[in-house]
Protein backbone atom coordinates (compact mmCIF):
# COMPACT_ATOMS: atom_id res chain seq x y z
CA UNK A 1 0.00 0.00 0.00
CA UNK A 2 1.26 3.50 -0.81
CA UNK A 3 1.99 5.24 2.47
CA UNK A 4 1.38 8.91 3.23
CA UNK A 5 3.78 9.36 6.13
CA UNK A 6 2.25 12.30 7.98
CA UNK A 7 -0.69 14.65 8.10
CA UNK A 8 1.28 17.44 6.42
CA UNK A 9 2.04 15.25 3.39
CA UNK A 10 -1.60 14.16 3.19
CA UNK A 11 -2.74 17.79 3.35
CA UNK A 12 -0.42 18.69 0.46
CA UNK A 13 -1.63 15.78 -1.69
CA UNK A 14 -5.30 16.44 -0.91
CA UNK A 15 -5.00 20.10 -1.91
CA UNK A 16 -3.43 19.39 -5.29
CA UNK A 17 -5.63 20.11 -8.30
CA UNK A 18 -4.06 17.08 -10.02
CA UNK A 19 -5.88 13.79 -9.39
CA UNK A 20 -3.56 11.06 -8.06
CA UNK A 21 -4.20 7.31 -8.15
CA UNK A 22 -1.88 4.70 -6.65
CA UNK A 23 -1.94 1.12 -7.99
CA UNK A 24 -0.41 -2.08 -6.69
CA UNK A 25 1.22 -4.69 -8.92
CA UNK A 26 -2.21 -6.21 -9.66
CA UNK A 27 -3.46 -2.79 -10.79
CA UNK A 28 -5.80 -2.46 -7.83
CA UNK A 29 -6.32 1.06 -6.44
CA UNK A 30 -4.48 1.56 -3.16
CA UNK A 31 -4.46 5.37 -2.91
CA UNK A 32 -6.50 8.36 -4.13
CA UNK A 33 -6.45 12.04 -3.24
CA UNK A 34 -9.40 14.45 -3.03
CA UNK A 35 -8.91 15.71 -6.60
CA UNK A 36 -9.48 12.14 -7.81
CA UNK A 37 -12.69 11.90 -5.78
CA UNK A 38 -13.95 15.17 -7.28
CA UNK A 39 -13.00 14.20 -10.84
CA UNK A 40 -14.59 10.74 -10.77
CA UNK A 41 -17.33 11.54 -8.24
CA UNK A 42 -16.13 8.45 -6.40
CA UNK A 43 -15.17 8.38 -2.74
CA UNK A 44 -11.87 6.87 -1.60
CA UNK A 45 -13.82 4.32 0.44
CA UNK A 46 -15.50 3.01 -2.71
CA UNK A 47 -12.41 3.25 -4.90
CA UNK A 48 -9.83 1.54 -2.69
CA UNK A 49 -9.34 -2.10 -3.56
CA UNK A 50 -11.07 -2.10 -6.94
CA UNK A 51 -9.19 -2.64 -10.19
CA UNK A 52 -8.34 0.46 -12.20
CA UNK A 53 -9.99 -1.34 -15.11
CA UNK A 54 -13.33 -0.80 -13.40
CA UNK A 55 -13.02 2.96 -13.78
CA UNK A 56 -15.07 4.25 -16.72
CA UNK A 57 -12.51 5.00 -19.43
CA UNK A 58 -12.80 5.75 -23.12
CA UNK A 59 -11.08 3.59 -25.77
CA UNK A 60 -8.94 1.90 -23.08
CA UNK A 61 -6.16 4.41 -23.82
CA UNK A 62 -5.42 4.87 -20.13
CA UNK A 63 -5.25 1.12 -19.54
CA UNK A 64 -2.85 0.76 -22.44
CA UNK A 65 -0.70 3.50 -20.96
CA UNK A 66 -0.66 1.74 -17.58
CA UNK A 67 0.32 -1.59 -19.16
CA UNK A 68 3.08 0.06 -21.21
CA UNK A 69 4.62 1.50 -18.05
CA UNK A 70 4.20 -1.77 -16.19
CA UNK A 71 6.05 -3.70 -18.90
CA UNK A 72 8.78 -1.15 -19.65
CA UNK A 73 9.31 0.49 -16.27
CA UNK A 74 9.57 3.85 -18.05
CA UNK A 75 7.20 6.75 -17.33
CA UNK A 76 4.70 7.57 -20.06
CA UNK A 77 2.49 10.60 -20.72
CA UNK A 78 -0.64 10.92 -22.82
CA UNK A 79 -1.99 14.36 -23.72
CA UNK A 80 -5.66 15.27 -24.06
CA UNK A 81 -7.01 11.92 -22.92
CA UNK A 82 -10.81 11.78 -22.87
CA UNK A 83 -12.51 10.15 -19.88
CA UNK A 84 -16.16 9.15 -19.65
CA UNK A 85 -17.07 9.78 -16.02
CA UNK A 86 -19.61 8.02 -13.81
CA UNK A 87 -21.74 11.17 -13.71
CA UNK A 88 -22.18 11.00 -17.49
CA UNK A 89 -19.84 13.94 -18.06
CA UNK A 90 -16.66 13.85 -20.09
CA UNK A 91 -13.32 15.23 -19.01
CA UNK A 92 -10.17 15.99 -20.97
CA UNK A 93 -7.01 15.23 -18.99
CA UNK A 94 -3.26 15.10 -19.45
CA UNK A 95 -2.22 11.74 -18.00
CA UNK A 96 1.16 10.60 -16.68
CA UNK A 97 1.94 7.12 -15.34
CA UNK A 98 5.08 6.49 -13.31
CA UNK A 99 6.48 3.32 -11.75
CA UNK A 100 7.98 3.47 -8.27
CA UNK A 101 9.41 1.13 -5.67
CA UNK A 102 8.11 1.18 -2.10
CA UNK A 103 8.99 -1.33 0.58
CA UNK A 104 10.34 -3.69 -2.06
CA UNK A 105 7.11 -3.62 -4.07
CA UNK A 106 6.53 -2.20 -7.54
CA UNK A 107 3.64 0.24 -7.68
CA UNK A 108 2.30 2.79 -10.14
CA UNK A 109 1.22 6.39 -9.73
CA UNK A 110 -1.27 7.88 -12.21
CA UNK A 111 -1.51 11.68 -12.46
CA UNK A 112 -4.59 13.15 -14.15
CA UNK A 113 -4.47 16.88 -14.81
CA UNK A 114 -7.83 18.17 -16.03
CA UNK A 115 -7.18 20.59 -18.88
CA UNK A 116 -10.77 21.27 -19.94
CA UNK A 117 -11.39 22.78 -16.50
CA UNK A 118 -8.65 25.34 -17.14
CA UNK A 119 -10.12 26.16 -20.54
CA UNK A 120 -13.51 26.60 -18.86
CA UNK A 121 -12.00 28.96 -16.28
CA UNK A 122 -10.38 31.03 -19.04
CA UNK A 123 -13.68 31.21 -20.94
CA UNK A 124 -15.54 32.09 -17.75
CA UNK A 125 -13.12 34.95 -17.07
CA UNK A 126 -13.55 36.33 -20.60
CA UNK A 127 -17.32 36.01 -20.33
CA UNK A 128 -17.34 37.74 -16.95
CA UNK A 129 -15.26 40.62 -18.33
CA UNK A 130 -17.85 41.11 -21.08
CA UNK A 131 -20.69 40.95 -18.54
CA UNK A 132 -18.98 43.49 -16.29
CA UNK A 133 -18.35 45.86 -19.21
CA UNK A 134 -21.96 45.61 -20.35
CA UNK A 135 -23.26 46.17 -16.82
CA UNK A 136 -21.07 49.25 -16.41
CA UNK A 137 -22.41 50.66 -19.67
CA UNK A 138 -26.00 49.99 -18.58
CA UNK A 139 -25.41 51.55 -15.14
CA UNK A 140 -23.96 54.70 -16.71
CA UNK A 141 -26.94 54.89 -19.04
CA UNK A 142 -29.33 54.33 -16.13
CA UNK A 143 -27.77 57.22 -14.20
CA UNK A 144 -28.21 59.49 -17.24
CA UNK A 145 -31.88 58.50 -17.49
CA UNK A 146 -32.65 58.78 -13.78
CA UNK A 147 -31.83 62.49 -13.42
CA UNK A 148 -34.24 63.86 -16.08
CA UNK A 149 -36.92 61.39 -14.87
CA UNK A 150 -37.01 63.19 -11.53
CA UNK A 151 -37.45 66.51 -13.30
CA UNK A 152 -40.17 65.08 -15.54
CA UNK A 153 -42.10 63.74 -12.57
CA UNK A 154 -41.76 67.00 -10.64
CA UNK A 155 -42.94 69.05 -13.61
CA UNK A 156 -46.00 66.81 -14.02
CA UNK A 157 -46.90 67.25 -10.33
CA UNK A 158 -46.53 71.06 -10.61
CA UNK A 159 -48.68 71.04 -13.71
CA UNK A 160 -51.29 68.97 -11.88
CA UNK A 161 -51.49 71.54 -9.08
CA UNK A 162 -51.58 74.56 -11.41
CA UNK A 163 -54.10 73.46 -14.00
CA UNK A 164 -57.79 74.02 -13.24
CA UNK A 165 -59.42 71.48 -15.56
CA UNK A 166 -59.97 68.25 -13.57
CA UNK A 167 -60.36 66.30 -16.82
CA UNK A 168 -56.63 66.86 -17.46
CA UNK A 169 -55.62 65.21 -14.15
CA UNK A 170 -55.78 61.82 -15.83
CA UNK A 171 -52.95 62.79 -18.18
CA UNK A 172 -50.68 64.19 -15.50
CA UNK A 173 -51.32 61.08 -13.37
CA UNK A 174 -50.24 58.91 -16.31
CA UNK A 175 -47.01 60.93 -16.60
CA UNK A 176 -46.28 60.49 -12.86
CA UNK A 177 -47.09 56.76 -12.92
CA UNK A 178 -44.94 56.09 -15.97
CA UNK A 179 -42.08 58.14 -14.53
CA UNK A 180 -42.31 56.03 -11.35
CA UNK A 181 -42.34 52.83 -13.40
CA UNK A 182 -39.27 53.89 -15.36
CA UNK A 183 -37.55 55.00 -12.16
CA UNK A 184 -38.16 51.56 -10.66
CA UNK A 185 -36.77 49.92 -13.79
CA UNK A 186 -33.69 52.15 -13.63
CA UNK A 187 -33.16 51.21 -9.97
CA UNK A 188 -33.21 47.55 -10.97
CA UNK A 189 -30.67 48.25 -13.71
CA UNK A 190 -28.40 49.88 -11.14
CA UNK A 191 -28.42 46.64 -9.12
CA UNK A 192 -28.33 46.12 -5.34
CA UNK A 193 -28.14 49.47 -3.61
CA UNK A 194 -27.09 48.38 -0.13
CA UNK A 195 -24.17 46.37 1.25
CA UNK A 196 -24.93 42.81 2.37
CA UNK A 197 -25.77 42.17 6.02
CA UNK A 198 -23.93 38.90 6.41
CA UNK A 199 -24.42 36.32 9.11
CA UNK A 200 -23.94 32.58 9.49
CA UNK A 201 -26.88 30.70 7.95
CA UNK A 202 -27.78 27.23 6.76
CA UNK A 203 -28.58 27.38 3.04
CA UNK A 204 -31.34 24.85 3.57
CA UNK A 205 -33.28 27.55 5.44
CA UNK A 206 -33.27 29.63 2.27
CA UNK A 207 -34.41 26.67 0.15
CA UNK A 208 -37.17 25.70 2.58
CA UNK A 209 -38.44 29.29 2.48
CA UNK A 210 -38.60 28.94 -1.32
CA UNK A 211 -40.45 25.63 -0.98
CA UNK A 212 -43.09 27.27 1.22
CA UNK A 213 -43.47 30.12 -1.27
CA UNK A 214 -43.87 27.80 -4.26
CA UNK A 215 -46.33 25.63 -2.31
CA UNK A 216 -48.35 28.70 -1.30
CA UNK A 217 -48.69 29.64 -4.99
CA UNK A 218 -50.80 26.49 -5.41
CA UNK A 219 -48.72 25.08 -8.24
CA UNK A 220 -49.98 21.54 -7.74
CA UNK A 221 -48.60 20.18 -11.01
CA UNK A 222 -45.06 21.29 -10.17
CA UNK A 223 -43.28 18.47 -8.32
CA UNK A 224 -40.76 19.67 -5.73
CA UNK A 225 -37.72 17.48 -5.08
CA UNK A 226 -35.27 18.07 -2.24
CA UNK A 227 -31.81 16.51 -2.48
CA UNK A 228 -29.92 17.99 0.45
CA UNK A 229 -26.54 17.16 1.93
CA UNK A 230 -27.30 17.30 5.68
CA UNK A 231 -23.62 17.63 6.57
CA UNK A 232 -23.25 21.03 4.91
CA UNK A 233 -21.62 23.70 7.09
CA UNK A 234 -23.14 27.13 7.48
CA UNK A 235 -22.10 29.96 5.16
CA UNK A 236 -21.48 33.64 5.90
CA UNK A 237 -23.94 35.49 3.64
CA UNK A 238 -26.85 37.91 3.58
CA UNK A 239 -29.93 35.68 3.96
CA UNK A 240 -32.37 38.01 2.17
CA UNK A 241 -30.05 38.70 -0.74
CA UNK A 242 -29.37 34.99 -1.26
CA UNK A 243 -33.11 34.30 -1.06
CA UNK A 244 -33.82 36.98 -3.70
CA UNK A 245 -31.11 35.57 -6.00
CA UNK A 246 -32.67 32.09 -5.72
CA UNK A 247 -36.22 33.42 -6.07
CA UNK A 248 -35.42 35.03 -9.42
CA UNK A 249 -34.10 31.68 -10.68
CA UNK A 250 -37.12 29.78 -9.33
CA UNK A 251 -39.53 32.22 -11.00
CA UNK A 252 -37.79 31.69 -14.34
CA UNK A 253 -37.87 27.91 -13.84
CA UNK A 254 -41.62 27.90 -13.14
CA UNK A 255 -42.31 30.03 -16.21
CA UNK A 256 -40.11 27.72 -18.35
CA UNK A 257 -42.00 24.61 -17.16
CA UNK A 258 -45.47 26.04 -17.71
CA UNK A 259 -48.28 23.94 -16.28
CA UNK A 260 -46.23 20.97 -15.03
CA UNK A 261 -42.70 19.80 -14.39
CA UNK A 262 -40.15 19.00 -11.68
CA UNK A 263 -38.27 21.60 -9.68
CA UNK A 264 -35.26 20.22 -7.80
CA UNK A 265 -33.24 21.81 -4.99
CA UNK A 266 -29.87 20.13 -4.47
CA UNK A 267 -26.95 20.96 -2.15
CA UNK A 268 -23.43 19.60 -2.11
CA UNK A 269 -19.90 20.47 -1.02
CA UNK A 270 -17.42 21.04 -3.85
CA UNK A 271 -13.67 21.47 -3.68
CA UNK A 272 -10.97 23.57 -5.33
CA UNK A 273 -13.23 26.07 -7.07
CA UNK A 274 -12.00 29.35 -8.56
CA UNK A 275 -14.00 32.55 -8.00
CA UNK A 276 -12.61 35.87 -9.23
CA UNK A 277 -9.08 34.39 -9.51
CA UNK A 278 -9.25 33.10 -5.91
CA UNK A 279 -9.14 29.35 -5.30
CA UNK A 280 -11.45 28.09 -2.56
CA UNK A 281 -10.64 24.71 -1.05
CA UNK A 282 -14.28 24.20 -0.08
CA UNK A 283 -17.52 25.72 -1.34
CA UNK A 284 -21.22 25.02 -0.91
CA UNK A 285 -22.96 24.27 -4.20
CA UNK A 286 -26.66 25.12 -4.27
CA UNK A 287 -28.41 23.85 -7.40
CA UNK A 288 -31.85 24.75 -8.72
CA UNK A 289 -32.89 22.63 -11.69
CA UNK A 290 -36.06 22.37 -13.74
CA UNK A 291 -37.48 20.21 -16.50
CA UNK A 292 -38.62 23.10 -18.66
CA UNK A 293 -37.95 23.88 -22.30
CA UNK A 294 -34.36 24.96 -21.68
CA UNK A 295 -32.50 28.14 -22.60
CA UNK A 296 -31.92 29.11 -26.21
CA UNK A 297 -28.28 28.20 -27.02
CA UNK A 298 -27.91 31.54 -28.80
CA UNK A 299 -28.36 33.48 -25.54
CA UNK A 300 -26.98 31.02 -22.96
CA UNK A 301 -23.70 32.96 -22.75
CA UNK A 302 -25.56 36.27 -22.34
CA UNK A 303 -28.28 35.42 -19.82
CA UNK A 304 -26.60 37.34 -16.98
CA UNK A 305 -26.49 40.54 -19.03
CA UNK A 306 -29.15 43.15 -18.26
CA UNK A 307 -32.13 43.26 -20.64
CA UNK A 308 -31.40 39.83 -22.17
CA UNK A 309 -34.52 37.63 -22.25
CA UNK A 310 -36.28 35.18 -24.55
CA UNK A 311 -39.74 36.02 -23.17
CA UNK A 312 -41.88 38.72 -24.76
CA UNK A 313 -43.04 39.97 -21.34
CA UNK A 314 -39.68 39.59 -19.57
CA UNK A 315 -37.49 42.49 -18.46
CA UNK A 316 -34.23 40.52 -18.65
CA UNK A 317 -33.19 41.79 -15.22
CA UNK A 318 -33.86 38.83 -12.91
CA UNK A 319 -30.71 36.82 -13.62
CA UNK A 320 -28.56 39.94 -13.83
CA UNK A 321 -29.74 40.91 -10.35
CA UNK A 322 -29.18 37.34 -9.10
CA UNK A 323 -25.60 37.40 -10.30
CA UNK A 324 -24.96 40.77 -8.67
CA UNK A 325 -26.40 39.51 -5.36
CA UNK A 326 -24.34 36.31 -5.46
CA UNK A 327 -21.22 38.35 -6.30
CA UNK A 328 -21.81 40.35 -3.12
CA UNK A 329 -21.66 37.11 -1.12
CA UNK A 330 -18.23 36.30 -2.58
CA UNK A 331 -19.68 33.50 -4.70
CA UNK A 332 -20.49 32.82 -8.31
CA UNK A 333 -23.42 31.56 -10.34
CA UNK A 334 -23.27 29.13 -13.27
CA UNK A 335 -25.79 27.69 -15.69
CA UNK A 336 -26.01 24.73 -18.02
CA UNK A 337 -29.09 23.96 -20.04
CA UNK A 338 -30.62 21.58 -22.51
CA UNK A 339 -34.29 20.85 -23.22
CA UNK A 340 -35.77 19.17 -20.16
CA UNK A 341 -32.81 19.90 -17.88
CA UNK A 342 -31.71 23.39 -16.88
CA UNK A 343 -29.45 23.71 -13.84
CA UNK A 344 -28.42 26.92 -12.10
CA UNK A 345 -25.60 26.46 -9.58
CA UNK A 346 -24.75 29.00 -6.87
CA UNK A 347 -21.35 28.47 -5.29
CA UNK A 348 -20.70 30.05 -1.89
CA UNK A 349 -17.35 30.01 -0.06
CA UNK A 350 -16.84 28.10 3.16
CA UNK A 351 -14.36 30.06 5.24
CA UNK A 352 -12.60 28.72 8.32
CA UNK A 353 -10.80 32.03 8.88
CA UNK A 354 -13.88 34.14 9.56
CA UNK A 355 -15.38 34.55 12.98
CA UNK A 356 -17.12 31.53 14.33
CA UNK A 357 -14.69 28.71 13.86
CA UNK A 358 -17.43 26.26 14.89
CA UNK A 359 -19.04 26.93 11.51
CA UNK A 360 -16.04 25.64 9.55
CA UNK A 361 -16.37 22.40 7.61
CA UNK A 362 -14.63 19.55 9.35
What this model shows, in words?
The protein is α+β, with helices and mostly antiparallel strands and 362 residues long. It has 3 domains: 7-118, 2-Layer Sandwich (Beta-Lactamase); 120-190; 199-359, 2-Layer Sandwich (Heat Shock Protein 90). It is built from 9 helices and 12 strands.
The total domain count is 3
Structural category is alpha+beta
The CATH topology of the largest domain, please?
Heat Shock Protein 90
* Number of helical regions: 9
- The CATH architecture assignment of the largest domain turns out to be 2-Layer Sandwich
- Mean of residue pLDDT values: 81
Per DSSP, what share of the residues sits in E-state strands of 2 or more residues? 25-35%
Highest CATH level, the class of the largest domain:
Alpha Beta
What is the name of the CATH superfamily of the largest domain? Histidine kinase-like ATPase, C-terminal domain
* C-alpha geometry: elongated
First CA to last CA: what distance? 26 Å
User: Spans with pLDDT under 50 lasting ≥5 residues?
Assistant: 352-358
Question: What's the structural blueprint in terms of helices and strands?
Answer:
Blueprint: H1 7-14, E1 19-23, E2 29-32, H2 34-40, H3 44-47, H4 61-72, E3 76-84, E4 90-102, E5 105-114, H5 115-162, H6 169-190, E6 199-201, H7 203-216, E7 222-227, E8 235-237, H8 239-257, E9 261-275, E10 278-290, H9 318-328, E11 332-338, E12 341-349
Parallel strand pairs: 7-9
Antiparallel strand pairs: 1-2, 1-5, 3-4, 4-5, 6-8, 9-10, 10-12, 11-12
